[in-house]
Amino acid sequence: MLCDFCGKSFDCSGIEINQTHICSSCELELISIEASDPDYPLWIERIKKVWESIRL
Predict the structure, then answer these.
(1) Pairwise CA distance, residues 49 & 5, whole Å
(2) Mean pLDDT across the stretch 23-46?
(3) CA-CA to 31 of 20 to 30 Å: which in 1, 14, 39, 43?
(4) Domain boundaries in the chain?
(5) Residue 56 binned pLDDT confidence (cut-offs 50, 70, 90)
């Protein structure tokens, strides 16, 4: 299985939300990112995709 955020191998220590897999590295990045970080908009888009999959 692969992480839906970074494409790397998904390990069981990551999280799964509605069949979306997030590896532990991405999970840590996600909870520590600041709004001032240049990658913040990218993470917001990734989360939007997860949210949209839940709503469908």
Answers:
(1) 10
(2) 94
(3) 1
(4) 15-55
(5) low
Residue tagged 């240049």 (tokens): 38
Contacts with 6 (C-beta within 8 Å, 6 or more apart), sequence order: 23, 25, 26
Closest CA to 22 of 53, 34, 56: 53
β-partners of residue 15 are 22
As beta bridge partners, residue 21 has: 16
Q: What's this model's pTM, rounded to 2 decimal places?
A: 0.80
Q: How far is CA 39 from CA 4, 13, 19, 46, in A?
A: 17, 23, 24, 11
Q: CA 7, 31, 13: angle at the middle one, nearest 5?
A: 55
Query: Any idea which residue has 């990045």 for tokens?
Result: 29
Residue with tokens 């590295």: 25
